[in-house]
Amino acid sequence: MTLPESKDFSYLFSDETNARKPSPLKTCIHLFNDPNIIFLGGGLPLSDYFPWTQVTSKSPLPPFNKGIGAKLSDSETDTLTYTVERDSKAEDFDIPFSKSLQYGFTQGHPDLLNFLKEHTGLIHKMNYSDWDIILTTGNTNGWESTLRVFCNKGDVILAEAHSFSSSLASAEAQGITTFPIPIDEHGIIPEKLEEILDNWTPGAPKPKLLYTIPTGQNPTGTSLADERKVEIYRIACKHDFLIIEDEPYYFLQMGEYIADLDERKKVQDVPKPTHDQFLGSLAKTFLSVDTEGRVIRMDSFSKVLAPGSRLGWLTGSKKLLQPYISLHEMTVQAASGFTQSLVNGLLQRWGQDGYIDWLIGLRHEYTLKRDNAIDALYEYAPKHEAFKINPPIAGMFFTINIDASIHPEFETKFQSNPAMVEQYIYDKVVRSGVLVVPGAWFRTEGETNPPQPKESKQGGNANEIFFRGTYAAVSPEKLREGLKRLGDALHEEFQIAK
Amino acid sequence: MTLPESKDFSYLFSDETNARKPSPLKTCIHLFNDPNIIFLGGGLPLSDYFPWTQVTSKSPLPPFNKGIGAKLSDSETDTLTYTVERDSKAEDFDIPFSKSLQYGFTQGHPDLLNFLKEHTGLIHKMNYSDWDIILTTGNTNGWESTLRVFCNKGDVILAEAHSFSSSLASAEAQGITTFPIPIDEHGIIPEKLEEILDNWTPGAPKPKLLYTIPTGQNPTGTSLADERKVEIYRIACKHDFLIIEDEPYYFLQMGEYIADLDERKKVQDVPKPTHDQFLGSLAKTFLSVDTEGRVIRMDSFSKVLAPGSRLGWLTGSKKLLQPYISLHEMTVQAASGFTQSLVNGLLQRWGQDGYIDWLIGLRHEYTLKRDNAIDALYEYAPKHEAFKINPPIAGMFFTINIDASIHPEFETKFQSNPAMVEQYIYDKVVRSGVLVVPGAWFRTEGETNPPQPKESKQGGNANEIFFRGTYAAVSPEKLREGLKRLGDALHEEFQIAK
């Protein structure tokens, strides 16, 4: 079956993208590898002067039967030792440092791109032909570039009513207004989204894009239901905006929390899934729904391999990715060559199957962490209807919602202002020796510029506040202790007996 | 002696900088290392899941007596083998991957910052107290960030009349006008700069900054004379603009080209300089002239260690660097952790002295390359007054100026248009099997918005064109062959007998 080509959305490009001229130096760079040309065109140092002739890494070896975090025995059963040379290749797929530490390849080194493109095709069944990927230095970079590529000062974008504060702040600094979309425990509510857009003030600038974190959303921990993605995509076509799916937590899909330990054990005792079972269990993606090429997906190694790798990739239509490449030539230039050589060396040796093994192992670890956290929350948090624990099915975050109005001093000390309760509890909890962060830090603001939706954007109790915690960063023991401190502080503050 | 503090130039910040709110998450990040706090605040994965437990590098060992590009014998005399661990430190100064591959440290890892700050203090005698450095992912990133930090759409900046095309294009895309400053063989002409600014149209936006590549300028290969730096700094204070010195080629200061081989041999036979001699021989820098904190210097490892390291640093007053950190939190986040651990591991083991040895070795290599290139140019280029060879004293580039009007078909085929000759020669030279790039690619444009300076910005023959070549990228033999092809093509095209 021949897939259709993507549509042309270049009319959504920013003034900056339209004003960006291709560097004339890039018009001759293809001659660098022409054997008939002696290239005196660019200031490329000889690789003889790169002071790393060989780098050898020790890494875990698939299928990671003892767990992805298990201590390596240094034996052939669990330890992979691989070497990247400066001047030669141990394997055909290696990127020697003479290449990776040289200029060039803003899109990414071909060998690494090939691996990631194959992986991407495996996960998302693409519905148009001219899709591609480019490397980023992580989703922070990918998002900031997205704003530069598409948005002008004064433009409007859409985002979940609570969203990642750094992403929101990046838009705000650029003078872009973010309009919050109501969410519930399954993410964006398509009906609300459509209503907002159907009733958009005529003549007001319409949103160019929707920024969403569909899986294990930050900060709410919610995951967008599959059928909602189809609906939201339909609305995107109807109202002509792009969808930017920011998916750092995509592979941390732990599934439903099972409170009953016997039931949970039954699920845990099921043997490790096959690769087909694992791939089949993953949530639908906007990318896989996209027929027109109006979705740009941001994947990152930050949560899957290591944040400091500063490596991720964008997937979308070639037409939409081209201006990112032109922008990146003038910003990041390329992801670090050390990173590219070492990540490529590892992934290629693991193979697509080994990488899936890794992702299965990662999901397993986070399932244990999530269960441990939610068990402890149910154990230690006040057992009172004003406290609502939200067990996530994906990602790194749990939330606890609190009806601030039940605070004994709500009307007096806090003047019936839930935000004041929130800040007060945050400070108290920190003094108790545990840090969870207030939901208010993630509120999507800027809704004053476009027309207001008629209903509250929270869609719920106006006195409800929430706190976000993570089970990613500490050991199970510390996590339990932290949540006990949290529970104790809440009991005390709200004067609820244990 | 107590040094004074820098002045406050925050009134030069861009709207974007002023609108950028600090991320609330950053207000609690200091609690991450507080032993009394269980930190459930951020989505930081456990380092147990970083799949690199140990990375071992082979590198050259100071003092590099056989040359910095010499093949390593794998013996203790010339080979340094060092290991960075994930979970421990071989040396106190090492940055284990558990730290470098984790989130955090947008400014850079403290150990690496310490080394670079010490190095920077050694090279530039700073005249104010509150200076600091921050890491970048190279000067491309540093420059783009500079534009974002200081400039709004419609602002004006100054640059050499020919400058690095990518830097100019970056400004242009952002809607910033670059005003070209006349240059000669010693760089920017201070008198011209002052005249332009003294006669600036009243009410027109005044330039916020001067972008300059003082050493081995790209594309002209010229180096800004020391005494001119003092003058230009005085003018910067008078007309209140910042100076951004982009110095990737700073350590490639080969000194004057000596055509006479006997004379040259005398210089070559002088023993390797002491470190004090080397440091004393380096050009004055704007940073070392700066008393107010109005200079930001961009250093890069691209030409000194390897371009693909994507690592550099900015030096300037803390007040001016702070908004870069806030911007980088939303763009690059941090330089790659692999890069930081490996570069730090190498530099710390080399020590400040070993690194100076490396820079001395690098300068030696480029001196040989430069001499080889200029020798060949004098040998092969037409010996005719219309062809002017410009031997550089620093950097990677040579230029050859040509009076296009002596072309036999200048008035007929080329309609007395030197630009047409330039393009034609470029194409012909490429067909002859060598690539040098036309000076026109680097012309600083955008001078139509502010008032025109009265004299030609080139200050010379309006029919003069030039080509830029580099001796960095190929072996000496290939370079000679390339320059022979260039010379042959020019002889033929201009119908000059050999």
Automatic annotation (TrEMBL), chains A, B:
Q: What is its main location?
A: cytoplasm
Q: What is the lineage of its organism?
A: Eukaryota, Fungi, Dikarya, Ascomycota, Saccharomycotina
Pfam families referenced in this protein's UniProt entry, alphabetically = Aminotran_1_2 (PF00155)
Membrane spanning stretches: none
- State the similarity comment: Belongs to the class-I pyridoxal-phosphate-dependent aminotransferase family.
Q: Which Gene3D superfamilies match?
A: Type I PLP-dependent aspartate aminotransferase-like (Major domain)
One GO biological process this protein is involved in is:
tyrosine biosynthetic process
Localized where?
Answer: Cytoplasm
Q: Which cofactor does it need?
A: pyridoxal 5'-phosphate
UniProt cross-references to SUPFAM superfamilies, sorted A to Z: PLP-dependent transferases (SSF53383)
* Source domain of life: Eukaryota
Keyword set includes Transferase = yes
Protein name (database record) = aromatic-amino-acid transaminase
Q: Which top EC class is named for this enzyme in its record?
A: transferase
